[in-house]
């Protein structure tokens, strides 16, 4: 027999009871790339020790999910063999009805998911579900690579590659709100360039590694950069380092090229440059405070997430293909309630 649980609405109003079903819809990965994703009927999850069940309102689609399909590690707690992808969700706790965002590690592409209690955070009543999810993993990443590891920001000249992705677009706005003197962004199309300029970039260049440092410096009025945000590694990393000025900082938060950047420590000595790595899971204890600051910046108009696509759960493969083709801007979301 189905059990019923009270759930609060998105603005604090009472919603009809959530009916806890014996089974649910979920995306299952059978192997390979996006073509291996399919909508299936599966048993609903059971909460383990310290976990809470969440009725999923929206699931976030991140580049880390694509990495997880290839390697079994999405860097959010997913493990090899996890059949249901998806590392972050917004929804309602089934036991209390509280609206929350959560890092679930895996299992997020589903109607319900279990998540560790220390990776669940409340959503204020004035923040809608889509905004909350867009400001969650990508917002926390952008906040920490700029405000935590990138300081000082005020008066800094900053280079932000892939500036219209989910992280890049938020990092651009956070840096602008923090008083950056000049921001140079990289994009891959005219449409994306226009978006970066609208969100605070002073100049935009193509992200092709060839002659990248020279083009970035030219766009920066002939000056080297105080802060560079690296998400790709690979051959571009050496170009980014060459564009970094004395006492400048590189914050590396990804290897989207598929290859790590190569570095000789001797290249940091002259100029007293520094390199910091970032992994969100190392900052979980600071997430509640950071989300409070991010929500405050959102309320003041200092940051506005861009929701690129909201698709039904059954369209997960299309969402992954769009990210792989670098044809997206902003945040991608999957809606279990839009699934037949």
Please specify the SSE layout and strand pairing.
Blueprint: E1 3-8, E2 14-20, E3 23-29, E4 37-43, E5 51-61, H1 63-71, E6 88-93, E7 99-103, E8 112-116, E9 120-122, H2 129-134, H3 137-148, E10 157-160, H4 166-177, E11 182-187, H5 190-198, E12 203-206, H6 212-219, E13 225-230, H7 234-242, E14 244-252, H8 266-269, E15 274-277, H9 287-299, E16 307-312, H10 316-324, E17 331-335
Parallel strand pairs: 10-11, 10-13, 11-12, 13-14, 14-15, 16-17
Antiparallel strand pairs: 1-2, 3-4, 5-6, 5-8, 5-17, 6-7, 7-9
Helix pairs in contact: 3-4, 3-9
Keywords: NADP, Oxidoreductase
GO molecular function: mRNA 3'-UTR AU-rich region binding; NADPH binding; quinone reductase (NADPH) activity
Organism: Rhizorhabdus dicambivorans
- The amount of beta strand, in percent, is 25-35%
Architecture of the largest domain, according to CATH? Alpha-Beta Complex
**CATH homologous superfamily descriptor of the largest domain:** Medium-chain alcohol dehydrogenases, catalytic domain
Run of helices and strands = EEEEEHEEEEHHEHEHEHEHEHEHEHE
Instruction: Estimate nothing, just give the exact number of structural domains.
Output: 2
Largest sheet: 7 strands, mixed
Nearest-integer average pLDDT: 91
Distance between the termini: 23 Å
Helix content: 25-40%
What's the CATH topology name of the largest domain? Answer: Quinone Oxidoreductase, Chain A, domain 1
What is the C-level CATH assignment of the largest domain? Answer: Alpha Beta
* Cα shape: globular
> Using only CA atoms, what is the Rg?
20 Å
How many beta-strand elements? Answer: 17
Low-confidence stretches: 1-19
Number of helices: 10
Helix/sheet category: alpha/beta
